[in-house]
Design a protein that fits this description.
Belongs to the short-chain dehydrogenases/reductases (SDR) family. InterPro entries: Fungal_SecMetab_SDRs, NAD(P)-bd_dom_sf, SDR_fam. By secondary structure, the protein is of the alpha/beta class. It is about 45% helix and about 15% strand.
């Protein structure tokens, strides 16, 4: 395992995280991937499926219980990795949620919408990174990735926000879909990335925020609605992240990157 790139991916039992792991397993380069999952059972099921889908992989994968909202879970995962491989080369903060649709449908309060998303998308990513950095700094080529999303101020300032074609006067607005909580967390995540980028330059850590694209996942709990909006298969995001891990965007560290471009914050 000494010659393998040791990678940890959070929120990896399904969606983009799963496809990131699958892309790494399909690489010509050898990896050992820790597949982080809030539920160990679901993580183990994902590993079994990956082993069937990638039978000739030179890489290996193992499930690790990792709930990014639980400090004790993060600490336990850290101790497991420390005792097993002693270091990681790549940390991919992928775990993320949105409760915007639940709020629009009256299933959660506005406060729980925001607090729930910030706990996973921002606080969770920060605590995982802070905890695992001692292991990442042992790598000869440490890489730190934050999977971002609809959180760019430039786009929103131009009105590039998913809204109905016509809004009526009055409050609250009648919306079938909203992304404001999710967008706010991803804007905060980009700030977190920049903070780590500048703090870790002296340590040689390459840091990015990545826009994987509009992909078909369970995020928000309405996969069929997302499919109807033209979302792409999440494997596209997985392949892009793999290329970043393997050096394709080394000239763009400290930036918000998409496939073939750099986005303004």
């Amino acid at each position: 395992m000494a010659s393998k790139n040791i990678a940890l991916v959070t929120g990896a039992n399904k969606g983009i995280g799963y496809e990131i792991v699958k892309a790494l397993l399909g690489s010509d380069k050898a990896y050992h991937v820790y597949l982080g999952s809030r539920s160990l059972e679901r993580g183990q099921e994902a590993v079994k499926t990956l082993q069937i889908e990638c039978p000739k992989s030179a890489s290996s994968v193992e499930a690790i219980q990792l709930d990014v909202t639980s400090d004790s879970s993060i600490k336990a995962a850290f101790e497991t990795v420390k005792a097993s491989t002693g270091h990681i080369d790549t940390l991919i903060n992928n775990a993320g949620i949105t409760k915007d649709l639940e709020f629009v449908r009256g299933q959660v309060s506005l406060r729980k919408n925001f607090i729930g998303a910030y706990d996973v998308n921002v606080a969770g990513s920060n605590v995982v990174t802070y905890m695992f950095l001692p292991l990442l700094l042992k790598s000869s080529d440490p890489r730190l990735i934050f999977v971002s999303g609809l959180g760019t101020f430039g786009q929103c300032a131009k009105g590039d926000i998913p809204l109905p074609p016509k809004l009526e006067r009055g409050w609250p607005k009648k919306l079938e879909f909203d992304t404001v909580g999710y967008r706010c967390t991803k804007a905060a995540l980009n700030m977190l990335m920049l903070d780590y980028h500048w703090k870790l330059q002296v340590d040689g850590v390459k840091v990015w925020s990545i826009l994987p694209g509009f992909l078909l996942t369970d995020l928000g709990g309405d996969k069929e609605w997302v499919r109807a909006q033209g979302a792409a298969h999440p494997s596209a995001g997985g392949q892009f992240v793999k290329r970043v891990v393997e050096g394709e965007r080394d000239a763009d560290t400290g930036k918000l990157i998409a496939n073939g471009s750099v986005y303004p914050f």
